[in-house]
Amino acid sequence: MRAAVMREGKLVVDTVPEPEPGPGQVLVKTLACGICGSDLHVLRHVGRFVEVQERSGSPFTMDPRRDVVMGHEFCAEILDYGPGAQRALPIGTRVCAMPIILGTSSLATVGYANDFPGGYGERMVLTEMLLLPVPESLPTSLAALTEPMAVGMHAVEKAGPIADDVPIVLGCGPVGLAVIAALKLKGIGPIIAADFSPRRRALAEAMGADVVVDPATCSPYQRWEELAVPAGVDPRSALTLLGLGPQPRPGLIFECVGVPGVLQQILEGAPRKARVVVVGVCMESDRLEPSLGINKELNLQFVLGYTPEEFAATLTALADGRIQAAPLVTGTVGVDGIPDAFAALAQPERHAKILAEPWREGRLS
Ligand SMILES: [Zn+2]
Q1: 40 C-alpha to center of ligand 1: Å?
Q2: Which residue, 118, 78, 121, is CA-closest to 98?
Q3: How far apart are the CA of 84 and the centre of ligand 1, in A?
Q4: What is the reported pTM?
Q5: What is the pLDDT along the chain (365 residues), one digit of tens a residue?
Q6: Helix, strand, coil % (nearest 5) of the chain?
């Protein structure tokens, strides 16, 4: 089959072996697959990616010296079942699924494995028990956003009970936009969103951010103080710090940038007692001053992925329109154009989410 292949640190379009479904697996046609920022990172830092996974103790094996077909944000169509399958869904059903192959003792990620090609190829093998049928009314392009939007849902769930919080979303790429959508879904707000890119700020607004700031000209923490601190309360007074009298609403900061230095900036700018949820994937070492976090009693939470329940709930919310994700999709591309699409995504002014349609040829449009 045709696929965009990660080979020796480059992305090339080539013909690769057909995947074959084993027991408990299903063969699908990739209808659409979002190009993820993580894939851009992995292409650039594949050695480091694999090494850190190993050091994290992840049940994960990927040999970067062998071909990898990436792509984990997909909507697909059932073509065939492996031996001994339940066959609960008819051939031809459109499906989404967590990009995970469940083996007896191991676990592989579709799109980050040598033997399980991801959605930048024409066909994939998925786990039958993880398949979710896509409701008839939901377009394929929006169903393919289930995976990235579930990341936002999970980040918000991991923040804990947050009804009264005033959240700040730093970085309005696809991850930040997914967090904004999830906050909106839960009725949390006002949502403050910050990004240097005017295009991304416009997308943040379209996804439901209430206050959008350019951090080059306006501090998101200043805006937070204006919105979260009751009139007449001095957040730095001894009384307030001791928890006496009216208190500011809780601060909740989502780090959706993922570059070195951002965590330190958050420690500097965050209000006291704020919780910080780290969603952006920074693959480099970083430096921060813990005493800043100590003095402010900040809470730092790292998050990854989503649960099966969150994944299914995200698909349902997309289908019934409670998550409006259409503005996120800024382009589509055939299999031969995927390498160019990777290059285009490096420029935040032009694109947010590009969907690959590997069943066809065609440049980025
Ligand atoms: Zn992703």
Answers
A1: 10
A2: 118
A3: 31
A4: 0.96
A5: 999 999 999 999 999 999 999 999 999 999 999 999 999 999 999 999 999 988 998 877 899 999 999 999 999 999 999 999 999 999 999 999 999 998 766 789 999 999 999 999 999 999 999 999 999 999 999 999 999 999 999 999 999 888 899 999 999 999 999 999 999 999 999 999 999 999 999 999 999 999 999 999 999 999 999 999 999 999 889 998 888 999 999 999 999 999 999 999 999 999 999 999 999 988 888 999 999 999 999 999 999 999 999 999 999 999 999 999 999 999 999 999 999 999 999 887 889 999 999 999 999 99
A6: 30, 25, 45
Ligand 1 centroid to residue 321 C-alpha, Å: 21
269 and 213 in contact (C-beta within 8 Å)? no
CA dist 22 and 171 (Å) reads: 41
Both structure tokens of 167: 């959240």
Distance (angstroms) between ligand 1 centre and the Cα of 152 equals: 11
Q: How far is the CA of 147 from the centre of ligand 1 (A)?
A: 7
